[in-house]
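Summary for the steering committee. The consortium agreed at its last meeting that each partner would contribute one worked example illustrating the joint modelling workflow. Our contribution is presented below. We chose a case with several input lines so that the handling of multiple components could be demonstrated. No manual editing was applied between input and output; the record is shown as generated.
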Amino acid sequence: MPGTKIVVGLDGSEASSRVLDVVRQQAKAMESCEVIAVYVIEWSPFSFQTPEENAERHKRREQDIKLARERVVEPALAALQAGGLSVSGRVEHGDAADILDRIAVKEGAAQIIIGRVGARGLTERIFGGVSGRLVAQSSVPVTIVP
Amino acid sequence: MRNLPLAFLATLFSALLTGAARAQEAATPMGIDQKINQIFADYTGWYVGFIFAPIPGTDFSWIAMWLVIGALVFTFYFGFIQFRGFAHSIALVKGDYSNPDDAGEVSHFQALATALSGTVGLGNIAGVAVAVGIGGPGATFWMIVAGLFGMATKFTECTLGVKYRNEYPDGTVSGGPMYYIVKGFEERGLPAGKVMAVIFCIFTILGALGGGNMFQANQAHAQIAGVFGDFPGWITGVILAAITFAVIAGGLKSIARVTEKIVPFMGIFYVVVSILILLLNFDQIGWAFGQIFAGAFTGLGVAGGFTGALIQGFRRAAFSNEAGIGSAAIAHSAVRTKEPVTEGYVALLEPFIDTVVICTMTALVIVITGVLNQDPETGLYIWNAEAGRIATDGGVSGVELTSLAYAQEFSWFPILLMVAVVLFAFSTMISWSYYGLKAWTYLFGEGAAKELVFKTIFCIFIVIGAAASLGPVIDFSDAMLFSMAIVNIIALYLLMPIVKGELSRYIGKLRSGEIQKFKG
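What follows is the complete predicted structure of the assembly.
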């Protein structure tokens, strides 16, 4: 029987390590569990850029993915693997709430676990943070780690 | 190759100095502006005269006709792609066909928005006022017609731009006419590709320094001075140059990003205000369209009549949306797509937004607010023979006429228009600094030092443009800009079968279901 899948949203912040603790606890309670750790680089295809930024976009995207992998995803994977969990990681561009939900649906995950990222600035206050939007639109249960 | 940029600079300056020495010999004391003007008028006047020469018996320049004929040819050759493919273009921009795995790459929307911020500008505000002021409301009709045809030109050049761009190992891309001329000509076994590409690049560099830079800086200063009172142009020039240098050479991307964000909103705001004015004068919209249609074919008493309206409308559309110039092909080539023709579809929206929507809004507001004087008895426009245009309230023309028309409804509009003109000018300069740079690196090779040479020259020209009234210099540079279209459109004629091949292959894939929507 394939293990229960859990999608974990990473953001590289302090909260992430608390998230990983919760993941480990939850995984322990399960018979077999597969963790998919996701780091989302906020990105909108409808933003405005200069011609030069456009020309360099592909290069920057590759660099961003590499950095996110090295600094956030791989340390998280190492920490989880040390706990004996089966893990995989990915870096995506887009809207974090949308992407976490999409991956959860696609992978048939049982739940999404993310840290509660505090409101960062006016836009987040008006439109809600990632966690707020995820809770509002998620197709699977969501655990928010304070 | 390494010292070529410096050699180029040295030649440029020595030409200027030799010319200056000759001007000195004329012995009459002249200001530096006048000296430079004199040199340019002496050495380049013949070329400017040639480019903007009217077709015999008309006052319609052959270069505008060249652009319009090109647009017609592409429209028929691609079977009215701008109408058949319009809905598909919108779907592409909305991202319906974008693979989510490609998120984070340049989207169709971004390529379009970037290209638009290079073209939307003074032409939409001042140029339209000139066209309607001389050609009457009927000019609007021909402007729309020319804008609609121009969409096919953009389709052709931007498809080629993406197909033949260079992709470097580090992931950056360079594209534009110089690349498709060389590679496309090679593919079709045509001679002289390299020579044409080099000529195109020289025109691009000179056009970028003038029409894409000095003219913009000059007009931005004129607008600021118009609102705050006159002050030396070099002050505006130095500030603009410093900001531009910080952006293009100093990597101060945040300023560019802010501008790139504000400019589209300015554009949208401009359209919204225009629609508001039209709604406030709702009862007159039918009348205004009547004027536009009647004027398109009769002239409504405007000197030149039908041909006057046609000439002004065509000229304005051709000069405003840059279809056929080749600049858009540079801007659009950064998009990430497996199918080059998709970017052609997206690019054809550019003349639509620039000319058919924004220019038409300006024209409608000018017509509807009644700032063009009409004889109350005959309904014909009153011709101011001395000025060579329709009489207006206060005798204004160009940007002031637009400003006056909008101020009829909203008195605060001139301030907003000033901000818009300055921002549009700035974003046009940022775009053209890039187009010029691409031509420069094509000629001299890529490399930080070589690029810095061009960026420095570009910023120096901003100061010159804002400080001096350099009519002949700007005329020369405008001539360069339109010379780009001579080379580019010849290349487009020769390469259009390749685009047709791409298009049929793509449509085949769409029909067979090989290419499918990801959403929507």
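The beta strands of chain B are 166-167, 173-174, 383-384, 389-390. Residues 31-512 of chain B form a domain with the Amino acid/polyamine transporter I fold (CATH 1.20.1740).
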